[in-house]
Design a protein that fits this description.
Shape: elongated
Mean pLDDT: 86
Largest sheet: 6 strands, mixed
Number of helices: 1
CATH architecture of the largest domain: Sandwich
Helix content: under 10%
CATH class of the largest domain: Mainly Beta
Oligomer: single chain
Strand content: over 45%
Number of domains: 3
Low-confidence stretches: 1-6, 8-27
Structural class: mainly beta
CATH topology of the largest domain: Immunoglobulin-like
Number of strands: 29
């Protein structure tokens, strides 16, 4: 008989505990917390970073209107968050990062009231612990996401160094360091008509930049072949279909007889579609000049250099 009474008492406490647990879960389920802050934030000179939270009530809710009070717990402090101008139910807190730190952790605590038939009860909801890293080196944007072979393209960002290199599908391309906030590259002589993954690589690691599409373009050269004697000069004219973009259009001319051909770098000036250079004959030899990445495929200019 005593065992039966003890068993009944245990059951009563179990039922009470279960009911309390359900009530607490119901209160927690009354609101949803959504962290709108990215896990990585770009460094800024003020070292102030906005942390954003959305608080929403679920379905037909017994949450008392106006009772929601979001807080953020960061660096051991519990701080009230302010309403954001971004919309209803969105709250913000401007956090000043202490000097010398590049990471921080925080969580959200939201107090609210639930209305019952004859009373209200205060409840709390917690978020998980969130971690943020502040990036001193990052890419903001490409100047454009498409262009022809040889186009000069700028990249805006922060934390660039002279050792940084731009890669197209993991192949390094000609990169120009301009400042800690500006970098540029020349579109490489790769197959046109497709997209390439662009990546920034350097001593600080690799960062994805985006995708870039190489567009086909037409190129003509006159004369179509060169016949020179050693020391002799001859002009060579390159013509592209469209005017060169800002920064000029680099024509990446290569040759299989570098000792036989003496010529400058070929860059069509911005706003123009033609450039004429002088080519000097070097050591006697036969070979070609090559340009890749155009709609006709590889452009070839035969070269024949004879002795004086």
């Amino acid at each position: 008989m005593q065992n039966s009474r003890l068993t009944l008492t245990r059951k009563i406490f179990f039922w009470i505990g279960t009911l309390l647990g359900v009530a607490l879960l119901t209160g927690c389920d009354a609101v949803t917390l959504t962290n709108l802050t990215p896990a990585t934030l770009p460094e800024n000179p003020s070292q102030i970073y906005t942390l954003t939270l959305r608080v929403a009530t679920k379905g037909p809710s017994s949450v008392v209107p106006g009772s929601v009070k979001p807080h953020i717990v960061i660096d051991g402090q519990n701080v009230a968050m302010a309403k954001s101008s971004m919309g209803e139910g969105i709250f913000e807190y401007d956090y000043r990062l202490p000097p010398g730190r590049t990471e921080f952790a925080y969580y959200f605590l939201v107090e609210y009231e639930l209305a019952y038939a004859e009373r209200t009860e205060t409840r709390e909801a917690y978020s998980e612990i969130n971690r943020v890293s502040v990036a001193s080196r990052y890419v903001l944007s490409l100047e454009t996401n498409r262009g022809p072979v040889g186009a000069h393209i700028s990249i805006l960002g922060r934390g660039f160094s002279p050792q940084d290199v731009i890669y197209f599908d993991q192949m390094p391309v000609r990169t120009v360091y301009e400042s800690p906030t500006s970098l540029s590259f020349f579109v490489p002589a790769l197959s046109p008509g497709r997209n390439y993954e662009v990546m920034l690589g350097g001593v600080s690691g690799n960062s994805p930049v985006g995708t870039f599409r190489i567009d086909a373009s037409a190129l003509s050269v006159a004369p179509t072949e060169l016949n020179l004697r050693s020391g002799e000069m001859q002009t060579l004219t390159f013509t592209v279909a469209n005017a060169a973009p800002a920064g000029g259009l680099l024509l990446d001319v290569t040759t299989d007889v570098p000792e036989s051909v003496i010529m400058p770098e070929v860059v069509v000036p911005a706003g123009q579609n033609t450039i004429t250079i002088s080519v000097q004959g070097g050591k006697p030899g036969q070979g070609s000049l090559y340009l890749k990445g155009y709609d006709t495929g590889e452009v070839t200019i035969p070269v024949n250099v004879q002795a004086q």
